[in-house]
Amino acid sequence: MSILIYGLNLLVLAGLIWGLWKQDCNPKLRPYLFPTLLLKLACGLLIGVLSFHVYDKGDTQLYYQRALLMTDLAHEQGIGAYLQYLFTNDPTGTTLQGLQKPFYESAWNMPRLLSVPMLLTNGNYYLSSLYLSLFSFAGLWFFVNALARYFPTTAIPAVVAFLAFPSVVFWSSGVLKESVLMGGMGLLLGSSLYLLFGKRKPLLYLSLALVGLYLIWLVKYFVAVALALTLALSLLLKLIFYNPKLAHIHWVLKGLALMVLFSGIAWLGTQLNPNLHLEALPDVVYGNYQVSLLASQGKPRIDFPFLEPTYLSFILHSQLAFIGMLFRPFIWEAYNIRTFVAAFENTLLLVLAFGFLRDLFEAGRVKWRYGYMLTALLVFVFVMGVLLAYSMPNLGTLNRYRVVVLPFVVYLLLLCKTNSELLRYLLSARQRQPEEDEPAQIAAD
């Protein structure tokens, strides 16, 4: 029976991969599909091997064990009871009633999603891991192709940032929340680009965007709200500052209108979950910081000794939080193989950051055609990065959680002239002529 299960599921996976290959994509990206996909699938399997056979711990084990309870529900009480639970998240009347308290606890959403491939694979962890890794890859591949279509000079930086950067690939693979998160993010952002610039299939892309947003909400609601607000900010900036019909209005009035409109939208977003309420958010973030601090005794972490649960204190510590999130552990802080790998990657980020700063100080004034998108993205990266550093100062855990912002940072860093030339040098052995090539800038005129 196990051989039959393996065979059938591998055939289904092969069919899905073939369908992905047959999809219309940027010709420049096609050579990278299979190498990056195989890397993704391998990382998902590696997470399982490390969790079950090396460290014997990890969130992936918890998700797997809870998903097994749900597949047992389908076997014992029938597929109808399972489907009702799957779509309502209400364990009343099921064998999960005594375990899942309260029934709306988001920690059970990931096992619910995992239970779907688990049913298809008869509870096989590694086959289920392949399904989740494939979903994560497919969503990001969809997004990267959208970037390549509308910003063609940034195609290769997008591949590197979202599909090949080591920690991004590893931590968004397999049986982890980040697999669903990044796959959903790819669907949401890719569809948003097609809706913004394209004219075909608006209902399809709107549906994909909503599905992606809902999946993100299930696993990490605060990221879903942040992404929705980022898209709203980008749209408002475009409508107010890039609308020729409003060119005669003073920029101060435009700024005030933007503040009022975005504040109203942001307030609505904070009402979606009690933890996001403006009066509760500082205490929630500070409480998470204290809990993580206690659990990180003797481990590398970001310390904020004077941090207080106030917005002013968060703002004063924000630069330290962002730098720590992005560049720590430093190479001299490594004490085992895992921290050394993380520190080596962070050293690479530092090199890219210095390349960006070099071009920043040498560049003249640039007119950004898509400045509204860049501005919204920078706000998302900085605010989300800072909040992650406050909520999870343990550097080991933060290295995983930061994948929600890290690929965007890498993508932007690779767009400057110095780093784009370095990337071309690494990808090609032929003689380059930088003076004849346009710098890979996302929106420069």
From TrEMBL:
<feature type="transmembrane region" description="Helical">
    <location>
        <begin position="33"/>
        <end position="55"/>
    </location>
</feature>
<feature type="transmembrane region" description="Helical">
    <location>
        <begin position="370"/>
        <end position="392"/>
    </location>
</feature>
<feature type="transmembrane region" description="Helical">
    <location>
        <begin position="249"/>
        <end position="268"/>
    </location>
</feature>
<feature type="transmembrane region" description="Helical">
    <location>
        <begin position="337"/>
        <end position="358"/>
    </location>
</feature>
<feature type="transmembrane region" description="Helical">
    <location>
        <begin position="155"/>
        <end position="173"/>
    </location>
</feature>
<feature type="transmembrane region" description="Helical">
    <location>
        <begin position="398"/>
        <end position="416"/>
    </location>
</feature>
<keyword id="KW-1133">Transmembrane helix</keyword>
<feature type="transmembrane region" description="Helical">
    <location>
        <begin position="179"/>
        <end position="197"/>
    </location>
</feature>
<feature type="transmembrane region" description="Helical">
    <location>
        <begin position="125"/>
        <end position="148"/>
    </location>
</feature>
<protein>
    <recommendedName>
        <fullName>Dolichyl-phosphate-mannose-protein mannosyltransferase</fullName>
    </recommendedName>
</protein>
<feature type="transmembrane region" description="Helical">
    <location>
        <begin position="204"/>
        <end position="237"/>
    </location>
</feature>
<feature type="transmembrane region" description="Helical">
    <location>
        <begin position="6"/>
        <end position="21"/>
    </location>
</feature>
<keyword id="KW-0812">Transmembrane</keyword>
<keyword id="KW-0472">Membrane</keyword>
